[in-house]
Known about the structure:
Layout: H1 44-52, H2 61-72, H3 78-81, H4 107-111, E1 120-124, H5 128-138, E2 146-148, H6 155-163, E3 169-172, H7 174-182, E4 196-201, H8 217-230, E5 239-243
Parallel strand pairs: 1-3, 1-4, 2-3, 4-5
Helix pairs in contact: 7-8
Amino acid sequence: MVIKRLAPGEPGGSEAPASRKKRRSKVPADAAGQGESPTEGKTKKERRRLADTLPDSAEQVPGWFGENYAAVLQKLSPLELYPTGNRFRETDFVLDEKNVVFSVDNIPKLIKRKRNPQIRCLVVCASALRACDLRKPLAALKRPVAKLFAKHLKLKEQIEYLSNSNTTLGIGTPNRLLKLAQAKALDGIFSDSKNALILIDLHKDVKNYSLLNMPVVSQDSFELLRLLFASKPSDARPRVAFCV
């Protein structure tokens, strides 16, 4: 006996399967970008170019820094980026009259700028090796410098050290500093926010990356700044400066 299979659509046959392809909804060109921020969806190449283009004047620093901040943390909502609703202002930064970036050799003068010998300062570097290099100019201050990077010291040891000492000067890498900030271990350094300074080192590595656009490191850097700087009210923020 020969059994004939009925083709779909023939009398007695099964119905033809429905097409699984979904039609893409057409979005009008004028509505495609509505609600998006200028930094939303930027590629890595665009974010790198943004960080490499330093502002020409002090007035441009808040906008330039805010663009980098929002570009790297672009998955966060505006409320998460600015919990207090206060965006960056020129008074949030310590700027040179001739340039927006200070020389490494001038770090001691920068820290003493307010004529306060106990100015509290946290120096943020891209690597432990760079942090070791920057400890040399900091030695001119003749104050203990807390080593807040992963080399030689464990996180638990650093938390214990910070809780048992009156540290006012520290230097470290973004990932380790972020973990210390999340553990509230940096609260001592920033107990007096009006006399506190975050110094961001913009030194470039062999691949021409800086702390602001280096893969992974830039994410930790801006998340650290979100906790210590952007999330604070304007009158309680530490000030930020840049060196190279």
